[in-house]
Design brief:
Blueprint: E1 5-8, E2 15-21, E3 24-29, E4 35-39, E5 44-46, E6 51-54, E7 57-60, H1 61-72, H2 85-95, H3 106-121
Antiparallel strand pairs: 1-2, 1-5, 2-3, 3-4, 6-7
Length: about 150
């Protein structure tokens, strides 16, 4: 679901991909709903292409967001409610116990929480791409052309 949600360097918030043109993208801010062009020179990354360092490798952001959603029971994270950086890291350890302490900075965790809150505010609560199930696969009985 987050494949069309973008982060753009130098622009606050997250953006939804609306359309593609020649040498540019048309995006819509999740915060304001305003549309704007984004050009090839802008650093744009899909949230689906981001992962969090763990001690065993990398964890895709979508899976981390799913775990965070389960932990918070679908409620936003109160980033300002944490006493200090150590409290933020300890909370995140409850979400992703195997995150790499040396390579994941507190600012990264705060940004993750901020993005999670923005996604919730925009009504996005499913983060992983839907897994194909057997009912959507081609079934000869359901493909009658008579």
């Amino acid at each position: 679901m987050i494949r069309k949600i973008l982060s753009i360097a130098g622009k606050p918030g997250l953006f939804s991909l609306v359309s593609q043109g020649k040498n540019m993208l048309i995006v819509e801010s999740l915060l304001t709903g305003k549309r704007a062009p984004v050009y090839a020179r802008d650093k744009v990354i899909s949230l689906a292409d981001i992962s969090i360092y763990t001690t065993e490798g990398d964890e895709p952001l979508a899976e981390v967001l799913e775990k965070l959603h389960a932990k918070t029971e679908g409620k936003p994270v109160d980033v300002k409610g944490f006493a200090n950086d150590a409290a933020i890291r300890e909370y995140f350890r409850e979400v992703l116990p195997e995150f790499d302490d040396d390579r994941v900075y507190t600012t990264d965790i705060k940004k993750l929480f901020s993005w999670y809150n923005m996604l919730l505010a925009a009504g996005i609560t499913e983060f992983a791409d839907p897994k194909p199930d057997e009912t959507t696969e081609e079934n000869p009985d359901n493909n009658n052309n008579n």
